[in-house]
Each structure stands twice: as C-alpha cells, then as structure tokens.
Amino acid sequence: MELRHLRYFCVVAEELNFTCAAERLHMSQPPLSRQIKQLEQEVGAELFERTSRGLRLTPSGVFFQQHALQILEKVDVTIEATRHMARSKRVLFGIGFVPSVFYGQLPMLVRDLRRMDNVELTLAELTTVQQIQALKAGRIDMGFGRLRIDDPDVEQEILFDEPLIAALSSGHPLEGTTPSCEELARYPLILFPAKPRPSLADMVLGIFRRQRLKVEVVQEANEVQTALSLVASGIGITLVPEQVKRVQRDGITYVALADKSITAPVICSRRRGEKPSPLMQEANAILEVLVENRRTGRYP
C-alpha cells in the first residue's frame, strides 16, 4: 500500500462518486476504480457499498477513512516540519493548551524553551479533545488540558489537582466568605467554555449535580476572560481554577470554597510509546521543576 492509495481513497470517500473523484485527481475513472478495488483486497474489507444511486461508505470504510485522514495529515505535517527545519536549522516543538492552564507554570515552561537557540516553539490554543488529535497528527508534541481521555496512542499524566475557587463581583454578599456549594447554588452561574464540550463547564455542573443541587445557568462564555467580564458586570458568579486569580481584574474578587476537595486536574498529554527526543527530555525536566514548585506552594 502506498500513500497515493490513501489519497485516492480519501477523495473518493469525500465525493462518493468515482467520476467526480477522478476529475479532482486528474485521472480517468477506470484506473481509479481499479486502485480502490485493489485497496479493498489488500485491506481485506469492502470500504464502499456500490448502489445504483452511487457509493456509500461501509462501517469499515468509515473507520478506514478516519485513520487514513490522520495518517495523511501526519505525513503532510512531518514533511512541512522537515522542510522548515532544513531552512531554519532549528527544531520545532509544539505545545497545545486550554486557556485556563496558562496562568501558572506553563508560561514559565514556554519562557525557558524560547530561550534555547536551536528551538522554534509553536503554541496552539486547543481543547483537550483537539490536543489528542493534534498529538496523533504530529502538529503538537505536548498538550496541557483538564479532561481525562482514553486513547491508545496518547498517554496522559496528571501533574496536580488544582482547587477551584469562586469568582464574584466586588461587593457580592459572599465576598470574604468560604462558601459551600449550597450557598453558591443560590446565585446565577456563568459557565465556560460554552463549546466544544465536554469541558471544564461539565466538570463544574457535575460538582453541583453530585450534591443534588440545582443551579441557574444564566450565561455561557467561550473564554475565561469573557466569563470574568460577565461576573464583573454583576450577571452571576463563576468557578475558575485557582491560578486564574493571579490575573487581577477590576470589579472581581475571588474566594476559596469550603469544600477543599473540589478540584480540577492539570493534565499533560504526550504521544504514547514515543522515545523522548533530547528536546522533549529537556521540556520534561523543566516541567518537573515547575510542577514541584506548584505542589510545594513556591510559584516561580
């Protein structure tokens, strides 16, 4: 099997028509049909159901398409990264992150990696789900998020569990207290991120649900900064990871929760089974020091 077979298949799977696919590939239809038939024989499964109305992917075809697209994307990314390295003579290193983890130790990791002369660092704001796909495609080398996702190609390490705190508008009745979830549930709630889901928003809803408390979700926001602006406007309260309080905002006050077990994990995702490069080893060493600083309360 060659890469061209995967490319042929993906175009046919997209068009679901041999004639249209052949036109896109600048080839005639009969050779394309033969290539797909040979691919099915090599795979050992029918990838398309051929009907009078055209083509339709079989369940095997849907599965094969998902993985073929990942393979082709990874090849394209690898080729482009290799060309870039040859031009710049610097090693590319990609980090994906959710915004709520970028207020504590992660900026220090980015700073230390950027100081290396032979490293070109790329940053991508991605949900944890998107990070998993980016890792598998080779677009990033390390991801930081909050959701546990089971994927055979990715390993996840919980760096630490971070307390959640309540963000309130200045002068709020709960200011200066350590409220319980029951007390928080009496006030309108602002959730973030609104999408895509699942996300931290679902973790927050689960906290109240497990205590059989009903909450009024008055607004959903995609970004933590938007959520804080809504809080400052007096629309409602929100729960944020503890490191967010390091960013001072006018009209916002933060209070710790009475239940100290209410936390959100900070999770590092990497490709499973991949031998760490020298750069990855360096990044892991920096991260280990930063995490230890966090665990012992010594912020850099």
UniProtKB/TrEMBL annotation:
It comes from the Bacteria. GO terms for molecular function: DNA binding; DNA-binding transcription factor activity. The chain crosses the membrane at residues 91-110. PROSITE patterns: HTH_LYSR. One of its GO terms (cellular component) is protein-DNA complex. Keywords: DNA-binding, Membrane, Transcription, Transcription regulation, Transmembrane, Transmembrane helix. Belongs to the LysR transcriptional regulatory family. This is LysR family transcriptional regulator. It comes from Vreelandella nigrificans. The lineage of its organism: Bacteria, Pseudomonadati, Pseudomonadota, Gammaproteobacteria, Oceanospirillales.
